[in-house]
């Protein structure tokens, strides 16, 4: 590696107070990494825990407290914009529930020397997920096939929320006009990156199912995931 880089990890949180301390510790154990927590007014007090962590690590942890409409996509838009404004060279996105192990961060940052966006992939070397019931594996495998078939994105894990962006690539995405707000937002970002000719790389990760707190996957969010790839495709055609 040449010049030291400023790296920020954007983590959206909703009711993650049991997980956020351990996650912060793992991220900050890597020199040069900062953490931006985007909390959506979590009723369990995640925001207060995040503030306490920020006081303990001035300059390395920042907290955004969102008000108004809640959502993963809206939180990512706010957080990614803030990360770009802060001047970071590399911008990560990852979940707070310890499913994404901070140990994978350096390898992904290294890979960003050759790619515009690097995906922490569960499917690059078989299926690397721990503690997932069979129906989750099938659902995820189906979602990936579905997205690949509709959008023609050719990566093994297009629904992974563990990613590292070079700032030039991220700043080219149309964050102002994204159509999705749930998990489909993750797919939409990749689709827009792919349309813009970004080089997409993958690094294998081991994904561990959350042990603390609750999943926020709902029927509505899953329905959005089925529709969004088609909306993206037609929007892409209309624009090109
Ligand atoms: N700010 C914000 N964060 C959210 C929202 N919904 C989910 N998150 C966060 O997004 C990340 C992923 O959410 P999860 O509930 O773990 O979703 P998932 O990983 O697809 O589902 P599981 O596999 O069941 O864990 C976690 O860090 C959540 O706290 C939201 O509305 N706002
Ligand atoms: Mg999760």
Structure description:
With 240 residues, this protein is of the alpha/beta class. 40% of the residues lie in helices and 17% in strands. It contains eight helices and nine strands. It has helices spanning 20-28, 46-56, 72-85, 105-111, 134-151, 167-170, 184-195, 219-239; strands at 7-13, 33-39, 61-65, 90-93, 117-121, 129-130, 163-166, 200-204, 207-208. It has a seven-stranded mixed sheet with strand order 3-2-1-4-7-5-8, sandwiched between helices. A two-stranded parallel ribbon has the order 6-9. Helix 1 links the parallel strand 1 (7-13) and strand 2. Helix 5 runs parallel beside helix 8 and helix 7 packs parallel to helix 8. It is globular. The N and C termini lie far apart (38 Å). The model has no long low-confidence stretch (mean pLDDT 93). Guanosine-5'-triphosphate binds at residues 12-14, 16, 38, 40, 70-72, 75, 95-97, 99, 183, 210, 215-217.
């Amino acid at each position: 590696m040449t010049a030291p880089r400023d790296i920020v990890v954007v983590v959206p949180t909703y009711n993650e107070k049991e997980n956020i301390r351990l996650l912060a510790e793992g991220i900050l154990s890597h020199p040069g990494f900062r953490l931006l927590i985007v909390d959506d007014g979590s009723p369990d007090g995640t925001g207060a825990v995040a503030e306490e962590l920020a006081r303990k690590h001035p300059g390395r942890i920042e907290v955004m407290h969102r008000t108004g409409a809640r959502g993963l996509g809206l939180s990512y838009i706010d957080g990614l914009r803030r990360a770009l404004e802060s001047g970071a060279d590399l911008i990560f996105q990852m979940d707070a529930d310890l499913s994404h192990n901070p140990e994978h961060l350096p390898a992904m940052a290294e890979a960003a020397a050759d790619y515009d966006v690097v995906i922490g992939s569960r499917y690059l070397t078989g299926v690397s997920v721990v503690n997932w019931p069979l129906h989750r594996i099938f659902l995820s495998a189906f979602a990936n096939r579905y997205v690949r078939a509709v959008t023609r994105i050719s990566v093994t894990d297009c629904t992974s929320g563990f990613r590292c962006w070079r700032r030039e690539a991220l700043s080219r995405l149309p964050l102002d006009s994204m159509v999705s707000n749930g998990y489909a937002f993750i797919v939409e970002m990749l689709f827009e990156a792919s349309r813009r000719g970004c080089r997409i790389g993958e690094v294998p990760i081991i994904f561990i199912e959350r042990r603390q707190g609750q999943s926020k996957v709902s029927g509505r969010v899953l329905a959005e995931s089925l529709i969004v790839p088609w909306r993206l495709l037609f929007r892409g055609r209309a624009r090109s």
